[in-house]
Write a structure and sequence with these properties.
This protein is α/β, with parallel strands linked by helices and about 220 residues long. Helix content is about 35%, strand content about 25%. Helix 3 packs across helix 4.
Length: about 220
């Protein structure tokens, strides 16, 4: 599903943000991505959701060498990836329902199915009473849950989440991780970047750990 071989990344003339990163993630696996602030977690995720090309090394996604993928084919690859951003990136003029429905509408799903799936998912994440609310009226934690629902509504082949539990309490955090866990069990590859050691300990999945832009190993035996 994902393979990095001796990947490095730097911005402009600055120092390397990532250095000699090598690992592989198989289909349907679940990994935590940990490390202190500034370790390079967000930059690594950017490479995985194809927002950035590596400065050196080889990145293979869905069995394709990203360096050889024409620019006009990248959007189709990105549609296989669900991303939960730290800053949510919700569309302010749309309701919670319409934000979550957007990927399904882009994919041409009929409105009856959209209504059923979106309402079920928003109810599951505790927002069944906020379907028509716009982001500006929601708390940070509620916006985070809308963003997560939008990322998983299409059941992506790869789900990347950057600190998805940073704005919610522990009870909701565990509920959201169970949602990711269910996706993983039906075949989605999941990578969750987190600073929360209790979440990592509770779910006991392999952990990729970054220090100063280098992968220091998998603390639970991840494929690498």
């Amino acid at each position: 599903m994902v393979r990095f071989q001796n990947v490095g990344l730097h911005y402009g003339e600055g120092r390397d943000v990532l250095s000699d990163i090598t690992f592989a993630l198989g289909p349907g696996t679940f990994h935590f991505l940990t490390g202190p602030s500034g370790a390079g977690k967000t930059s690594l995720l950017r490479l995985m959701y194809l927002a950035q090309r590596p400065s050196c090394g080889k990145v293979t996604m869905f069995e394709r060498d990203i360096a050889n993928v024409p620019r006009d084919e990248l959007p189709a690859l990105r549609r296989r990836i669900g991303v939960v951003f730290q800053d949510f990136r919700l569309l302010e003029h749309l309701t919670a329902f319409d934000n979550v429905a957007l990927p399904l509408r882009v994919a041409g799903v009929d409105e009856a199915r959209i209504k059923t799936h979106v309402e079920e998912l928003l109810t599951w994440v505790g927002l069944g009473g906020h379907l028509e609310d716009r982001p500006v009226t929601l708390s940070g934690g509620q916006q985070q849950r809308v963003a997560i629902a939008r990322a998983v509504i299409t059941r992506p082949r790869l789900l990347l989440a950057d600190e998805p539990t940073g704005n919610v309490d522990d009870e909701i955090a565990v509920r959201l991780l169970h949602l990711f866990d269910e996706l993983h069990k039906i075949g989605t590859t999941v990578v969750v970047a987190t600073h929360n050691p209790s979440i990592v300990a509770r779910f006991a999945y392999p952990t990729l750990h970054l220090e100063d832009g280098r992968l220091t190993g998998d603390r639970r035996g991840a494929a690498a």
